């Protein structure tokens, strides 16, 4: 339907807003072209720079990686919405006072990410989750701004501005620190039934019906952090997409007794914050905490990371070490496969055009330790050059359970069975560790590419193994 228009309703900068637009537009396009709110910038258009950051339902997100109709019913704040009674937000004033402005293209996104960080901090303080009024640490600020790049490298003054704004908010005792940005109010849905059926299915059966009817001509969209990058590169039109993020059957982290189940729609940030998963799947929690920056973690999903089938996907090696299984559904059918059988090669899996990933599950193991480490061009917003996950149960000097998985060193994520065997069949000693470090270099199958060399990747497998094993058990 080339000339189709849809009405979408949301709360924008504190006001009920209904806007009619082409369903192929991203939220960034709607804000800039339909509502003339040009503070959000198009930088990379792929979620790498954060210049388009807005706050959606209390979380910073990249508006270039959200379809416009995905904002239906949401609460959104843009840089224009920070103005209150003619006064700038304390962080905006602090940016001016500290000289935290250079070329300007990244500044709106930086401010929105900083405001979200201060909102989260203030919300925790208000709820009594922090026992002392200490300032945000430098590491907390860096983590909160990891999804924003400043090519002028003016980070020090930006960090200073956030600290100055925090002190002012504390001194003024600003209640909740959020000014309505946390999304407590929900806009009334106005999208018509036909558009909802095409773009916003509410049940799993509705989504599977779309795929059954159209197959590869339609593509399911959840977080958008991979699929909208491909659309940006022209691999398929955004009009082919439909949103599955509201489907309740794809959400939840569920304790099933002897197993844990994670819905495919669970976002990386949810995994990183889950105490249940921290207890039973620490390697997975650690990996998801490192994916992208806050904006990516607030949108990207576990199921999407699997469906993208990248050998460098950070959530996949931990799932290999947990011996996870993948629940796949189509209209009227379902199947469960071990995760190692799910991938066929770079960007390829067994998933058919009529199927969706419903969830991932794995067995609970008492006293299981976990660790994940990776190397990339930078700490955040970087594809791994090499990664390694480990899950282990150590009793005395012997491993009772040990699984190791490598990412970005083969056409798919791979296990390291020979290395596991060396560690499982001997006491945990420096000699055993040295033998394992030599073995894992032989099990890797890296290549030369734009991001790294074969030799570097192979050598770093040994380095990461030593680090992961020490993290799991302490020095031998």
Q: Brief overview, please?
A:
By secondary structure, this protein is of the alpha+beta class.
Tell me the major beta sheet: 5 strands, mixed
How far apart lie the N and C ends? 64 Å
Summing up helix and strand content along with how strands pair, one would put the structural category as alpha+beta
Q: Report Rg.
A: 23 Å
Kindly state the percentage of residues in helix.
25-40%
Point out poorly predicted stretches: none
**Overall 3D geometry?**
globular
Jot down its keywords:
single chain, 17 helices, five-stranded mixed beta sheet, 476 residues, alpha+beta, five-stranded antiparallel beta sheet, 34% helix
Describe the structure.
With 476 residues, the chain is α+β, with helices and mostly antiparallel strands. Helices cover 34% and strands 20% of the residues. It is built from 17 helices and 18 strands. It has helices at residues 27-34, 90-98, 107-126, 138-144, 155-172, 193-199, 204-214, 227-232, 268-273, 275-280, 282-288, 294-297, 302-308, 316-321, 417-424, 430-443, 454-473, and strands spanning 6-12, 15-21, 53-56, 59-62, 75-77, 219-221, 241-243, 253-255, 259-263, 325-330, 333-338, 343-345, 348-349, 356-363, 369-375, 386-395, 398-407, 414-415. A five-stranded mixed beta sheet has the order 2-1-5-3-4, sandwiched between helices. Strand 17 and strand 18 (414-415) form a beta hairpin. Helix 15 runs antiparallel to helix 16 (430-443). 49% of the residues are buried.
